[in-house]
Amino acid sequence: MRIFFIPGFGEDTSVFDKIAPHISGDKIFIDNWEEIGDKPRKDINVLLHAKALVQKYNITPNDVVTGHSMGGWIAYHIKHVAGCRIIQIASWTKPDRVVTPIKNRKFVYWFMGSGLAFNRFSQWFMVWKFYRHKPSKEIFADTYSRLRTRKVSGVLNQMRVVLEPVPDAITIMPDLRIHAKADNIIRYPKGEACTTVSGDHFTLWTNPEEVYTPINNFLAIS
After folding, report:
1. Which of 104, 108, 125, 142 has the most Cβ atoms closer than 10 angstroms to its Cβ?
2. Residues 6+ apart with CB under 8 A from 118
3. What is the distance between the terminal CA atoms of the chain, rounded to a whole angstrom?
4. pLDDT in tens, the chain (222 residues)
5. CB 177, CB 193: distance < 8 Å
6. What's the pTM?
7. 195-197 and 64-68 beta bridge pairing
8. Helix and strand counts by DSSP (H, E) for the chain
């Protein structure tokens, strides 16, 4: 069985380091920074990216795709294209679950491109305000540093994967969904089946056993 792992916005595959060793299977890690790239891609959206991954990796219904945050959003669309099983960790099926103070996509893109969104001060402020007393402080700061130091065009490409609407109406559901109620980046699922865990958006890092245990249980019976 092939198990794909797709990280979230700004993350790299190391976000799975604490759960992947406890999960059996032929593991394949997808690097969004490499797959999406940093050449400006104003036409990209999550469905186009999902189709490209399905084609490149020949993803079939026999595979399982696990995604964290944006990676789960990508996995959701991969399931729509390939019919495979998916596992979402701290992710979403409805765009309104993404926490953002700004609703206008074009303004978000401008703001991020201006350099005001990710800089040393904003990193210090976000870590201090939301994570200074949390076990996930380290992984959040690491992700923020990556967003701050990578090419802006690459960051914008990933943000378009998060925010750009897609034409297809998708009615499928994740096969397994894992989410913490205290997640302040992606809202807890509303009216949808979910395995609830402790921690926050980065439970897979701070409380890995709570995440890999239901995954292993799901894989054992599926």
Report:
1. 108
2. 112, 144, 147, 148, 155
3. 11
4. 899 999 999 999 999 999 999 999 999 999 999 999 999 999 999 999 999 999 999 999 999 999 999 999 999 999 999 999 999 999 999 999 999 877 889 999 999 888 888 999 999 999 999 999 999 999 999 999 999 999 999 999 999 999 999 987 788 999 999 999 999 999 999 999 999 999 999 999 999 999 999 999 999 987
5. yes
6. 0.96
7. unpaired
8. 9, 6
